[in-house]
Amino acid sequence: MNNRLLQRRQFVLDVIHPGAANVPKTELKDKLAEKFKTDKDRVVVFGFRTAFGGGRSTGFALIYDNEEAQKRFEPKYRLIRDGLAKKVERPTRKLRKERKNRQKKFRGTAKVKAAEPPKKGK
């Protein structure tokens, strides 16, 4: 189905793979790019579920018209997965909460020092 508003073609993809557990997404991207005569970087496949007993998988495929549309409409996690965006490295959730709670005990400029973990020797 063509979706002109999101500048892409989108469809449900049924893959029949008897004798194999599943099919790699890179292989699916290559086949779709070849079939639809497009760049394999514009093809996005996701959400595959293997049917009970194996042999058949169902998922979704999107083929974007250009890279700008892909960056604009794709979720961030899928852009990271495809290498079009960088993952933001940040401290773990637990560490952020501990830092916040340490800061609550101080006022003013002392809050900056409270953000650092306490020294082991003291």
Question: What this model shows, in words?
Answer:
The chain has helices at 25-35, 67-73, 76-82, 93-103, 110-115; strands at residues 2-3, 8-16, 43-50, 56-64. By secondary structure, it is of the alpha+beta class. A 4-stranded antiparallel β-sheet has the order 1-2-4-3. It is elongated.
Kindly estimate the percentage of residues that lie in beta strands according to DSSP.
Answer: 15-25%
Instruction: Indicate the overall shape.
Output: elongated
The proportion of residues forming helix, as a percent range, comes to: 25-40%
The total count of helices amounts to 5
Strand and helix order: EEHEEHHHH
Q: Main sheet?
A: 4 strands, antiparallel
End-to-end distance, in Å? 65 Å
Based on CA atoms alone, the radius of gyration comes out at: 23 Å
Structural class: alpha+beta
Q: Could you list the spans in which at least 5 consecutive residues all have pLDDT below 50?
A: none
Q: Spatial order of the strands in the main sheet?
A: 1-2-4-3
Question: What is the mean predicted local confidence, pLDDT?
Answer: 91
Number of strands: 4
